[in-house]
Each structure stands twice: as C-alpha cells, then as structure tokens.
Task: inverse folding
C-alpha cells in the first residue's frame, strides 16, 4: 500500500511539474503577443485609432464570465464527480461558441482583423486564447471516458483545473489590456 | 589569390580597422595558446604502455579554480573590457556624433526601394521639398572633406546602405527613419551595396558614391540644380517625394 | 502499428534520429547547390540541374537561390541539428543516464515526434506550391516576409511549419524538464548528473521559455499575411500599425537563446566525452555547471547584437554590446575546463574523441570570432557579411556537426547493439574536419574583404570580383565535405547490419546506460540503480585497486 501511495504521489508531482512548465511556456506566448500589442499601441498617434467603432465590451465580459463559471464547475467536479465535469466542459464549449459569434459581430462591425489596430490586437490575442481553450477542452474531454480509473481522473482533473484557471486569468488580462485600457 | 580589403577612403574608417586589428591580435594569441595546449595534450598525454594512467584530479581544488577564474578574468579584461571601452569611445566621439549642429554638413535624404537607391539633396535654398532639390538615382555625389549626413527610409522592405570603403552600414526600415554620417577624405568612385536581404534582386541593388573635391562638387551641384529647376513640374505630385524635418 | 506509435523513448529517439539525419542530408545538398552557384555563377548544375531546375535549363535562378539559402538555414536549424541532438540523442540517452525507465510522459513524447513530422511535411509541401517555397531567409524579416515582399502560400506554410516545430519542441521541453527533475535514480543528485544531462536540461528550459516567443512571431506573421493585420507593417496616422523592427525583436528574443539551445547539448556531450576518453574526471565539474547556467541566464539579454545596424538607441546598443561580451566569461571557463580535462590525461584517440577534439578546435575559432561581432564598431563593417556566415557556421555547423557525429559514434553501440567501424570513422573524421575549417575560415576571410551575405552573384559588385577564386576553393572544400559524409552513411548502415556485436560497455565508462545490455531492453533497468558517485570517476585509485581505471556510478565498493 505504501509503495502504491508513493507511486501515486510521484505521478502527481510529475504532472504538477509538467503542467508548471507548460503553463510557463504558454505564459511566454501570451507575454510575447501582449508585448507586440504594447508596441503597436505605443506607436499609435491616438488610442483607439480614429475611426474605430466602439468595442462591445459587455459581450466580451459576458464571455469571460462563462469561462470563469466553467472553471468553478471543474473544481466542483473534483468533489462531486463527473457530472460537473460535463457541465464545465459544456460551459467552456459555450464560451467558444460565443467567442465565434463575437468575432462575427466584430467583422460585421468593422472591428475585425485588418480593419485597424484594435481589431488586429483583439483578434490575434483572442484567437490564440480560444485555441488554448479548445486544446484544454479536448484534453479534458478525454477524462469523460469511462475507462479512465478514478484516481487518474482525479489527478488529471486537478491539473486541468489549474490549466483552466490559467486560461481564465489570461482572458482577464486580455480583456483589461485591450477592452478596458 | 588576392584578398583585398576595400580601400579606406573615409575619415573614421581607420578606427574600425584599428579595432579589427586589435581583435585579431588578441584572438590570435588566445587561439595560438589553445592550439599549443591541444597539441601538447594530443602528442604527449596519450595513453601509452609507459604511461597508462591519467593524472586523477577533479580540478575543483582552490588552486585549480583560481587558475581557471584567473585566466578567464585576464582574458575578459584584456580583450572584452578594453574593446568595449574603446568601442564606446569611438562611437560617442565619432560614429554617433552626428553633425546636427554643423551647417557645413551636406544633408542627403536616401530612399531605398526594391532594388535601387535614390538620393536627394536640398538646393541652394537649403530646404527639402522645393523645385531646386537634386534627386539622383543610384549615384551619391559628395564633396571631399565635409561631413555628409544621411537620413534613410525605405519604401517597401528592410534594406541596408553599405559603404564598404567607409567601413559602415545602416539599415533603411519602412515606417521609420535611420541616420548615418561619414566624411570622404579622398576623391574617387566607390561602391554602395545593399546589406540586408531584400528580395530576388538584392544582389543587384548597387550604387556609386562619387566623392569630388569641393569645387568640382559645387560645379556638379550647380548643373544638377539647373536641370532640376528646368524639369520641375508642380503638377507631377508622384515625382515629388515628401521630405521630413531635419 | 504499435512500433510506429511506440511510446518507448528509445524508439522515439531513433525515429527522430533517422528522420532528422535524412533532412540533414537535404540541407547539405542545398548547401552544395548554393556553393555551386557562388563558384560558378549562372552555370547549369551538373547531373541534377535539369531535374531540380527544369524551367531554367538546370541553372539556379535568383528566385531559386533565395529559396535555397532560406530553406538550407531553416532545415538545418529547425529540422536537422536541433532535433537530432535533442529529439534523437536527448530522447534516447536522458532516461538511461539518470536511471529511469522512460520519460515522464511517454505518450507526450510520441506526440511530439508526430507533430514534428507534420511540421516537416508542411515545410516539404511548401516547395510544390505556386511561387515556390519561402524566400525571405531563415530569419524572414518583415516586411520581406509579409505580403509586401513575399506573396504566395509558400511563406505562409513556412510560418505554419515553424510554429508546429515549436509546438513539438515545447512538448519535448515539458518532458525533459519533468523527467530530469523527477525521475532521477536514488543517489543521482544534481551534481552527480552527467554533463550531457545538464546540457539537455538547460536547453529544455531555454526551449520552454523562448520557443513560445518565436511561435508568437510566427502567429503574428501568419495573421499579417492571411488576415491583413499590421503587426509588422508600419502604420499611418489614420491606420495605426506596427513596426517591422517588432518582428526582429521577437525573432531575436528567441533567436539568440536558440543558438544556445543548439549548443548546450553539444557542450554537455563533449564535456562528458572528453573526460571519458582522457580517462580522468571532467575538470571543474561544478564550475562548468555554473558556467552553463550563467550562459543560459545571459543568453536572454544579449539578443540585440543581431540588430546593431537598425539604428537602435545608443544606450540600448551599448548595453547589448557589454552583455554580449560578458557572456564570453562563462564560455571561456567552460573552455578552460575542457583543456583541464585533457591535460595530463591518458587520451584514447577513438573516433568519438577525435570529433570532440575537433569541436574544441572549431568552437575555439568560432567563439573567438564572436567577439568581433559583439563589438559595435567592428560589427558596423562586418554585419551581414560572410564573416558572420563563417562565424555561425564554425559554431553551429562545425561544432554541432562534430558533436552529433561524436554522439553517434559513441552511442551507436548502445542504440543498435553493434560497433561502428573505427577505421571508417577516422576516414570520415579527417576530410570532414579539414574541409569544415577550409570552408568556414575561408568565409571569415571573404567576409573581412567585405562580401555581403545572400548574394546570388557577388561579381555584380566590382569590389568583390577578385574574390571569385576564394569562392571556388571554398566550394571545392564544401564538395569534399559533402562527399566525406558518404563514408559516414556507409559506416552507419553497414554497421547496422554487419558491425561487430557490441558489449555492454565498450568504452569502459561509468554512466548508467553502460550497465545495461546493448541495446537495452524495453523497460531499461531490471531494478532502478542506486547512484553512489559522480559520472566521471576515471583513473580513481580505488578503481586501480580493482584492476581497472573507471568506477561505475552505481558501483558499490565493498
């Protein structure tokens, strides 16, 4: 029993170290994208650039809340079981759908990529963010499979919640940097 | 097989050559020592029947570390620190000492594009953007003995104005302005090259720098200005380039 | 199927090795073509010319030439050398060297190979699209690499290929870091790790931090090309935009650590192998480790030396100059320790040792020439000349190539259970080493004479016309270099089939992989070993008492 517990603790730490490195790498990616945004913004004569339509902050904020809710649902799943896992995944999926709809709205409203610096920045940052959410979705949905043993599922769920928290924080930073500031 | 370094015709090019020479001396000595040490080990420290065992040491004694750090420090001070100080001096006193306040400096606006260089000097009115501006394609005329102050921009991609006989170069970047200054010390024609990959004809993006004695230069400038004024067409906005504040 | 999608690190390592050696050959052939054009401008390439350049009658056109040097650089850096050392040898060796059964995340490992394969396929496909493959240099500076300078899907596919390559690399970095942090055998403390492991570990940290930066650059370039954004295209008052220099900052923020990512495994491997074949411990092991860590930290803040001619602020420029020069301190310590290892050794001049000594030599020259480029005054003349080309080829091509060969000759017995021919190994080494030096020192010379990089035909400039004989001789040496590799290919494949069966420990050294049969079984160690000493206990008096001159890392003395 001792050996098994030690092996399980060891696997947990492996996952934690791996996830830490992965999140560090993702953080560098977003840092670089934000740096590019900062440079574009610092070189602009005025911000937002003249002629930029107003940005739908409310819609963007609402989407963010969906993501935060998804994170909470995943945390609950650790205590209450796989049903909440499905809820969390569902919320994240809805987030992606709402983002897609937001992009559609932006393109129609002359705020898409290529229309101006604000559109460029928001699109680049949110597209990458969405890709990371999607990746997380795919990875976590694997956990829904019944063949995954409970202990493994719990361990991976822990890592998944950390990742989704990170993704939510990144959204917060993007929102503040692009939509509020 | 000759290996000719381009002839230095500039005021400050010798500073570059001096730095290169010092570097070669220092790195040459360091490399020679390296080769000697390697040769000694390869010749005399091989495993032989008479000497089958190595000298067992981890090299982590205080003496070993002091030796290693000592040599490293000497190399650093002798080479790196002296180079950095010397380079800094050269840069601040010469290469980065732009003749903004010097009224005798010849000001030239350079436009780089795929795949040619255009040069524009203000006419006798000393203002850019007037009918007496002289624009030349591929040829930069300068007087000998006076500073020449260039400001550069690019129409399309990043280029780099390279003056091998002046030991210098500066990039031309779309969307911003860069600057360079130099002074010719002898008359003659030297080449201008492009030193940043800019497309398929990058290798042909060549120009000529023609340095003439002052009076010859003024003669050329007068003829060129007359030409410009005669050809000036106020309706041809395409031919007129926007200048910028000096 | 199970074999192709194996999660065994030894199989994945070999998969990387084979695929990447193939692309090393592709990159090498491209180099031969570039050298042909420089030696005989405008003349049709013999034998393969009409096949490769049918539209131009076998002549390399300027457009084809720009593609050649672009893809040569891209393939060599991203698709050959890095993955050979890190994906190939890192994968095979690291778990064995630390006493583990496999990597921390075997399935992630397998995925990283297949993502790399997808990146490779994307890059290869880009040759066959309209307007051809990327042509903006491996550095792909904006705005040449945006739609302004490079229309056509080839450049876009290039950005995707680099991005996917980056994804694979980060997956690998996650794996290596976790494996080294978590899976070391009992007793394998940090300062008992073979320096090879330190090399792979530190390189993975740099990979994890900086590959995402180039991924961001590629992503933004992709957006600029495909979605019309303007991150790297200067804006106007009405349409705010970005800056081409932003691309350079992002690129070199990654690009400079990248060269250390390339060399750190080589440094680690050479540090170990010099010790093994000098039959004495690595001189100054701890100082070496701290020097490597110092290089890693400094490598993050020196990247501006690639941009000295962009007109950056004097303060920024001088800071980069100073920091770049400081990085020569840990590097010189590393070097001195190598010499200390060799000094008063009992050298065994085997093929791996020859390549290691060769690396010390070429890295010596190459590293010293870096000082020229660190100095802004010298760099304003030498930037974008062949001096730079000679410098980085000496360090990257020559040193890395020799490290890769040393690693191959050294670990081949463990990987494949057979010995490579020593005779053929030496026949491979000498022309390779001599030719490398002629080619790249020759390039230093013509760079000093002012010849720029990436010129289709240098004789377009009067001041370069006299350098044609130099280019001819450099090209001849390059052909010798290329042909000599055939000896290696022959040796490799012939030894796979008919090499002498390898004992468990043909080199008589103490690191853990040599305690296993050659090749090791699937699960590596029957029992995880307990480590009692460092990896370089050679020539130890305790060993001599037992009738040999080395002690194993897990060898308990009764």
Result:
């Amino acid at each position: 029993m001792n050996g098994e517990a030690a092996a399980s603790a060891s696997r947990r730490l492996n996952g934690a170290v791996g996830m830490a490195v992965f999140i560090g790498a993702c953080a560098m990616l977003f840092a670089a994208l934000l740096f590019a945004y900062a440079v574009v913004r610092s070189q602009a004569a005025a911000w937002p650039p003249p002629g930029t339509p107003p940005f739908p902050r409310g819609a963007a904020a609402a989407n963010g809340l969906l993501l935060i809710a998804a994170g909470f649902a995943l945390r609950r799943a650790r205590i209450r079981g796989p049903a909440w896992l499905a809820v969390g995944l569902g919320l994240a999926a809805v987030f992606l759908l709402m983002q897609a709809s937001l992009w559609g709205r932006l393109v129609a409203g002359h705020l898409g990529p290529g229309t101006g610096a604000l559109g460029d920045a928001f699109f680049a940052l949110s597209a990458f963010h969405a890709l990371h959410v999607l990746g997380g979705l795919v990875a976590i949905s694997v956990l829904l499979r019944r063949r995954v043993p409970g202990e493994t599922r719990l361990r991976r769920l822990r890592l998944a919640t950390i990742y989704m928290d990170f993704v939510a924080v990144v959204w917060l930073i993007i929102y503040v940097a692009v939509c509020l500031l | 097989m000759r290996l000719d370094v381009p002839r230095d015709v500039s005021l400050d090019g010798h500073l570059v050559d001096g730095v290169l020479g010092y570097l070669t001396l220092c790195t040459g000595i360091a490399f020679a020592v390296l080769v000697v040490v390697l040769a000694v080990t390869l010749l005399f420290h091989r495993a032989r029947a008479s000497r089958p065992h190595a000298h067992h040491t981890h090299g982590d004694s205080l003496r070993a570390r002091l030796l290693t750090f000592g040599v490293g420090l000497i190399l650093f001070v002798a080479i790196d620190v002296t180079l950095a100080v010397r380079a800094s001096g050269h840069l601040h006193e010469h290469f980065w000492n732009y003749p903004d306040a010097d009224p005798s400096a010849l000001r030239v606006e350079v436009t780089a594009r795929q795949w040619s260089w255009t040069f524009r000097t203000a006419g006798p009115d000393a203002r850019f953007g007037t009918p007496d501006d002289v624009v030349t394609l591929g040829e930069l005329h300068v007087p000998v003995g006076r500073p020449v102050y260039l400001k550069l921009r690019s129409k399309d991609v990043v280029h780099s104005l390279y003056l091998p006989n002046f030991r210098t170069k500066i990039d031309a970047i779309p969307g911003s302005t860069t600057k360079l200054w130099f002074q010719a010390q002898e008359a003659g024609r030297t080449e201008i090259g492009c030193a940043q990959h800019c497309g398929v004809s990058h290798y042909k993006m060549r120009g000529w720098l023609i340095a003439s004695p002052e009076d010859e230069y003024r003669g050329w400038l007068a003829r060129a200005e007359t030409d410009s004024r005669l050809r000036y067409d106020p309706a041809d906005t395409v031919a007129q380039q926007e200048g910028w504040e000096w | 199927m199970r074999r192709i999608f194996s999660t065994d690190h030894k199989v994945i390592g070999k998969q990387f090795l084979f695929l990447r050696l193939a692309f090393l050959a592709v990159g090498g052939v491209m180099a031969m073509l570039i050298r042909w054009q420089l030696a005989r401008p405008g003349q049709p390439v013999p034998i393969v010319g009409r096949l490769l350049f049918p539209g131009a009658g076998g002549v390399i056109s300027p457009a084809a030439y720009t593609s050649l040097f672009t893809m040569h650089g891209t393939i060599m850096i991203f698709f050959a050398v890095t993955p050979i050392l890190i994906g190939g040898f890192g994968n095979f060796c690291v778990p064995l060297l630390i006493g583990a059964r496999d990597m921390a995340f075997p399935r992630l490992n397998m995925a990283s190979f297949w993502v790399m394969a997808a990146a490779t396929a994307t890059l290869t496909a880009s040759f066959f699209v309209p307007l051809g493959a990327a042509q903006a240099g491996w550095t792909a500076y904006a705005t040449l690499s945006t739609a302004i300078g490079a229309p056509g899907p080839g450049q876009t596919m290039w950005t995707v290929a680099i991005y996917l390559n980056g994804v694979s690399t980060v997956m690998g970095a996650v794996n290596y870091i976790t494996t080294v942090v978590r899976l070391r055998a009992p007793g394998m403390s940090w300062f008992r790790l073979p320096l090879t492991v330190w090399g792979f570990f530190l390189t993975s940290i740099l990979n994890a931090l900086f590959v995402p930066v180039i991924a961001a650059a590629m992503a933004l370039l992709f957006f600029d090309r495909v979605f019309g954004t303007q991150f790297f295209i200067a804006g106007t008052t009405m349409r705010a935009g970005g800056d081409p220099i932003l691309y350079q900052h992002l690129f070199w923020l990654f690009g400079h650590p990248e060269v250390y990512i390339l060399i750190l495994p080589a440094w680690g491997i050479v540090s170990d192998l010099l010790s093994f074949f000098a039959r004495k411990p690595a001189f100054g092991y701890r100082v070496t480790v701290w020097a490597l860590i110092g290089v890693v930290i400094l490598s993050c803040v020196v990247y501006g030396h690639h941009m000295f001619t962009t007109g950056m602020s004097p303060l920024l420029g001088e800071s980069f100059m100073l920091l770049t020069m400081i990085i020569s301190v840990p590097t010189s310590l590393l070097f001195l320790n190598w010499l200390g290892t060799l000094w008063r050794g009992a050298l065994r001049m085997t093929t791996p040792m020859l390549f290691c000594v060769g690396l010390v030599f070429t890295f010596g020259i190459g590293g010293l020439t870096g000082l020229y480029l660190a100095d802004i005054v010298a760099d304003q003349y030498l930037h974008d000349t062949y001096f730079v080309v000679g410098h980085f080829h000496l360090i990257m091509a020559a040193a890395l190539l020799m490290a890769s060969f040393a690693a191959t000759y050294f670990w081949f017995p463990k990987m494949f259970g057979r010995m490579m021919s020593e005779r053929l190994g030496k026949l491979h080494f000498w022309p390779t080493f001599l030719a490398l030096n002629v080619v790249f020192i020759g390039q230093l010379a013509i760079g000093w004479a002012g010849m720029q990089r990436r010129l289709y035909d240098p004789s377009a400039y009067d001041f370069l016309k006299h350098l044609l004989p130099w280019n001819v001789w450099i090209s001849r040496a390059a052909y010798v270099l290329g042909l000599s590799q055939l000896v290696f290919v022959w040796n490799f494949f012939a030894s796979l089939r008919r090499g002498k069966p390898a004992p468990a420990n043909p080199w008589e050294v103490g690191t853990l992989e040599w305690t296993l049969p050659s090749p090791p079984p699937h699960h590596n160690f029957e029992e995880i070993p307990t480590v009692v000493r460092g990896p370089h206990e050679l020539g130890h008096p305790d060993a001599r008492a037992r009738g040999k001159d080395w002690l194993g890392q897990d060898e308990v003395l009764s």
Summary: Chain B is about 35% helix and 25% strand. The helical segments of chain B are 13-44, 62-95, 214-231.
